[in-house]
Structures are given as structure tokens and as C-alpha cells.
Amino acid sequence: MGNKWENKCHKCGLCCHEKAVYGRELVIDLDSWCEHFDPKTKQCNIYAERFSQSTRCKKMTTIRAMFASYLHENCAYVQWARRFHIRFAKKRILRFIHSKTCPDEDSDEDDLYEVFNA
Questions:
Q1: Residue at 80 is within a domain
Q2: How many domains does the chain have?
Q3: Interior angle at CA 23, CA 20 and CA 24, nearest 5
Q4: 86/80 Cα distance (integer angstroms)
Q5: Could you tell me the residue range of the domain that residue 39 belongs to?
Q6: Among the residues of 7-109, which ranges form H helices?
Q7: Cβ distance 36 to 50 under 8 Å?
Q8: Where are the beta strands (DSSP E) in the chain?
Q9: CA 111 – CA 20 distance, rounded (Å)
């Protein structure tokens, strides 16, 4: 699969955040992320070496795309699996939380993620 597989990724950065599944909800904490995640760019600072330098980072595989309940519905790998009718994890309601801060009403921090709430 190689590069073609990795190129499916939308680079949303949500994989870098802490996630939890509670019943039918997938909760993503927008204030808690991997130490290699840059919140300004929403990108990984060690992307090319992430698997060797971070034990938190897990390689996206076909099996994960098919079964991982911590992947949101707009994830490109989930969309790929659904397109081929091989996504077996339950659809989850996506909820974002801010565990450490509450952004000002004028903040545009959530603009990156608005596509996932549509």
C-alpha cells in the first residue's frame, strides 16, 4: 500500500488528540494532544519519523480502518472502508471537548474542525 495508502489522509490532525469512546459517542479532546503535534499548523513535527520516535503513534492499517472505533466518520480511511463496505465499527456521534480551556467566542480555533460537525 505504501505512499498511496498514506496519501488518503486528510491531515486533519485529529489522530494526534486524546480520544475516548463512551457508548455511541467518540469524544475528542481538542486541548490534549501528542507532544509532537503543532497546534498552530495542526501537523506533526516528526511526521516522517513518527512511528520510530513516538510510541503513541499507530500506523493506519486496513484492519484499523475497518474496525477502530476511535476513528471519526470523516477520517479518509473510514470513508475508504465505508466505500468498499468493509467498515465494521459502529458509527459514533462525534463530540469535541476542551478539557483545559474555553476559547473566546471570537476564537477561530474550532474553524479547522467545523467540517466534522456538519
A1: yes
A2: 1
A3: 95
A4: 9
A5: 2-105
A6: 50-53, 62-67, 76-83
A7: yes
A8: 17-22, 25-33, 37-38, 43-44, 93-97
A9: 22
Residue 87 makes CB contacts below 8 A (sequence gap 6+) with 65, 66, 78, 81
- 44, 36 contact by CB (below 8 A): yes
Task: Read off the amino acid at residue 85.
Answer: H
- Residue 86 and residue 28: Cα distance in Å, rounded? 24
Res 64: pLDDT: 96
Per-residue cell: 48: 516522517
For the stretch 51-87, pLDDT in tens is 999 988 989 999 999 999 999 999 999 999 999 999 9
Sheet holding 17-22, edge to edge: 17-22, 25-33, 93-97
For residue 3, the one-letter residue type is N
| Residue 69, domain member (yes or no) | yes
| φ, ψ for residue 33, nearest 5 deg | -140, 170
Phi/psi at 56 (nearest 5 deg)?
A: -75, -30
Q: Is 111 among the domain residues? A: no
Domain assignment present for 29: yes
Work out the pLDDT band at 106, boundaries 50, 70, 90: very low
